[in-house]
UniProtKB/TrEMBL annotation:
The lineage of its organism: Eukaryota, Discoba, Euglenozoa, Kinetoplastea, Metakinetoplastina. One of its GO terms (biological process) is cytosolic transport. InterPro entries: AP1_sigma (IPR044733), AP_complex_ssu (IPR016635), AP_mu_sigma_su (IPR022775), Longin-like_dom_sf (IPR011012). This is Putative sigma-adaptin 3. Its main location: membrane. It comes from Trypanosoma cruzi.
Length: 211
């Protein structure tokens, strides 16, 4: 059983980490440091298998990446080497001449591919064609969901804009009904002042004449 699988760059950067055994956070950090030291500090002439702290480390280099897997001491290291190579071949077919940048910018896809190859620390499927078929189906479904979400968001935005325009028109109509034009208000005010002035004069002069 594979305990964990790490992908480490030549600069010692962790590009992918999959844990199949529960470890505390501090223990994980310690194991990653040890794996980096074992992978980067070994010459290409040395064996791909290293025994350390009661476990076996399977280390294999592809271009600028080191694939490091930890297994139990009694497990078959040759099978794990083939599993790692199988995973690399699937990545290469999926991305097309895979490189480190593909794993950096598409790490979520790399994890998905890994989950189709290894499940619970054991080889899940040995057929690259079957794995790629499942991945293509998943990618197609994801694209349809994203497209449906985009169309739904666009429809919601369009409906919101339409509702705002309709509300604006309604409010403008109410505004015109409630508040007449300035010219009409001016005429009304002048008429009120004229009649008020006329009434005041008619009331004042009879009082003076009668006095």
């Amino acid at each position: 059983m594979i305990k964990y699988l790490l992908l480490i760059s030549r600069q010692g950067k962790l590009r992918l980490a999959k844990w199949y055994v529960a470890y505390p956070k501090k223990e994980k950090a310690k194991l990653v440091r040890e794996a980096c030291q074992l992978a980067l500090g070994r010459s290409a002439r040395f064996s791909n298998v290293v025994e350390h702290r009661g476990s076996k480390y399977i280390c294999r280099r592809y271009a600028s990446l080191y694939f490091v897997a930890s297994i139990d001491k009694d497990d078959n290291e040759l099978i794990v080497l083939e599993v790692i190579h199988h995973f690399v071949e699937v990545l290469d077919r999926y991305f097309g001449n895979v490189c480190e940048l593909d794993l950096i910018f598409n790490f979520h896809r790399a994890y998905f591919v890994l989950d189709e190859v290894i499940l619970g620390g054991e080889l899940e499927d040995s057929s690259k064609r079957t794995i790629l078929k499942y991945i293509q189906v998943h990618d197609g479904a994801s694209e349809e969901i994203e497209q449906a979400g985009s169309n739904g968001a666009a429809a919601a935005i369009a409906a919101t804009v339409g509702a705002l325009k309709l509300r604006r028109r309604f409010e403008c109509g109410e505004h015109r009904r409630q508040w007449p034009p300035l010219f009409l208000w001016t005429c009304v005010c002048l008429l009120v002042l004229f009649f008020s002035f006329s009434i005041a004069i008619s009331c004042f002069f009879p009082l003076r004449v009668g006095g």
